[in-house]
Amino acid sequence: MSTRPSPTPVQDPLETERAHLADSRAALRAMREHTESLDIRDVTANWVNAEVLASEIEQRIKALADLADTPLFFGRLDYHRAVATGQDAEDEHGFRFYIGRRHVHDAQGDPMVIDWRAPVSQPFYQASRKDPKNVELRRRFGYDGGALTAYEDEHLSDPDEEETVSALLQREIEKPRVGPMRDIVATIQPEQDEIVRGALSETVCVQGGPGTGKTAVGLHRVAYLLYAHRERLARSGTLVIGPNRSFLRYIEQVLPTLGELEVKQATVDELVAHVEVSAEDGATAAALKGDARMAEVLRRAVRAGVTLPTEPVVVVRGSRRWRVPVHELVEIVEELLSRDIRYAAAGEALPQRVAHAVLVRMEQAGEAPDDRVQNAVARNPAVKAAVKAIWPPVNPAKLVARLLSDPAFLAEQAEGVLTAEEQAEILWAKPPRSVRSARWSRADAVLIDEAHDLVSRTGSLGHVVLDEAQDLSPMQYRAVGRRCSTGSATVLGDIAQGTTPWATGSWAEALGHLGKPGAHVEELTQGFRVPREVIAYASRLLPAIAPQLSEATSIREAPGAFAVQPVDAERLDAATLDACRAALTHEGSTGLIAADARVPALREALAAAGMTHVEPGQETDAATRLTLVPASLAKGLEYDYVVLDEPAAVVDGEPDPRTGLRRLYVALTRAVSGLTVVHATPLPAELA
Ligand SMILES: Nc1ncnc2c1ncn2[C@@H]1O[C@H](COP(=O)(O)OP(=O)(O)OP(=O)(O)O)[C@@H](O)[C@H]1O
């Protein structure tokens, strides 16, 4: 707890710390002013450079903003022995470091605040009584708004000091939630820290129950990697992938508050948006199109147009004719087919190979042709015509359209891979007249993406964070995997929350599809969100939805409010609204979660009752703290209080009971402080 020693003015530690805070803020202001005053007119030779530099400076100015309600530092470490910090200059003595969101230095360049990601900060998260890591004192600071109001000390090597649970940490965890997701830099837990600071070269997969901090860990990991490998990742790029736009809006503030403004965000659908999606597949067809076997079908289909030559190529140059015989052309083509290179690259290599064969003949005839001659021969009309016939260009969308509309073509490519029934299942009932009028589904877009990659290689980013991964199909994993083929990934998910017919059953398999079979799987089990009683209630579903998983624990001390209210059918809407009103008497946000089919009726009822609300992903404010959440969008989100309307309808909204119960499990685990379940239909037996 914060201990306020007797108020001798000169020695009050809180005053001293406040003074350091004021000095640090002044130093940050000076850093910002210095950056703002930079005059780049003299140093840039041309306008392109000037533009790049100006935008870099603008980014830096933004990153140097002093956010009034985010404390500049949240902790302090006093070391026993001075620490050599390399490029992070140490304080005067090298003993004491203030840990904060970003690095702040004074006019002499000495550090006032050290970035939480610096090596010297790590013991703040990892030091313990068992392993103090040279730390004499760990101090945590408590803030109200921007004002420093408390501190709490641990003397890690003092055998007489009792081990206590940090009250400030607990307060941070129990804080009511409002608005979008926040960073957790002040309270990252040791097992989370290990994942956050994992090596860039390593792909890690995190399995964790609801509210165990997977999303938080993934975002902090990107921030850490950008700090530790800034240049490399600035070149290659980083990307956070989430399930939908409202989720991405919910998490989009976290990285900017950590000073990272450059990380891109996307949904899987956006990654593969080669065509407009306007159709929906049935569950069986979607599952088949998402099956990894489709990769083999596509691989064959892309090469299906390659025709072995039956005529020689004859090149006329001046008075001479050079002839490459059929058998040699066949050899060239077969060699290209056997090699693991992209279709378009092989197609570009082919005219050069043919030209090379011509050059060999020229040399044998005593000529001395150089590279220019080879290029000219490669562009010779006879060679070009032959290449076009042998290795025709492939349009990925056209190819997929043909597969889905031409039964004979599909049968040929899927021979031994898909059964006749499976082929029938994915064929379009009514083939479009042209590829342009095709109505594509989400799964079709993924197939087109795979075909694109078979034709020419997809560029790889440096690091990709894949959140809510459990819902991806094998083909979607492949689409993500090719975007980090030479980089690494952080894969986050919970098997119990998989709500697609093709949801991940095993992480080992999923990592195989991602192209990272060697990645290790870490498990997070400490829950930061859901109150104990609520997680215990939701966990009754686990035997039915993911028997291999154990229950997440809750580290929240507040017991949380939990109630189940059975009502008569005609009272359902009114009772649900009453429960919302009751929830809104508390501080923080309220989420009303309901089956998608129930949302229009509830929206009307809310409007009739004059209760304003927002949609998921929209920001709540003091006047409107209620969000109406269709169950299908609840994943990854959280609200202080949750009112869950009619669980049976949530289950029935899904194509099969297991998916329905998983959807219900997601809905039951969104609450931070309290959950009220209102139902007219009997609850699913698994909850009883
Ligand atoms: N170390 C921590 N200190 C304080 N709060 C934390 C910590 N770790 C996680 N949290 C908070 O717990 C809540 C749940 O975290 P998060 O959303 O990352 O969990 P999740 O595992 O992704 O959940 P879900 O499975 O529902 O998607 C968030 O409000 C997050 O800020």
UniProtKB/TrEMBL annotation:
Superkingdom as given in the UniProt entry: Bacteria
Keyword Membrane among UniProt keywords: no
PROSITE patterns: UVRD_HELICASE_ATP_BIND
GO molecular function annotations of the record: 3'-5' DNA helicase activity; ATP binding; DNA binding; hydrolase activity
Binding positions (ATP): G208, G209, P210, G211, T212, G213, K214, T215
SUPFAM superfamilies given in the database record: P-loop containing nucleoside triphosphate hydrolases
UniProt-listed Pfam families: AAA_19
Keyword line: ATP-binding, Helicase, Hydrolase, Nucleotide-binding
Recorded GO CC terms: cytosol
Designated name of the protein: DNA helicase IV
Protein source organism: Streptomyces zhaozhouensis
Lineage start: Bacteria, Bacillati, Actinomycetota, Actinomycetes, Kitasatosporales
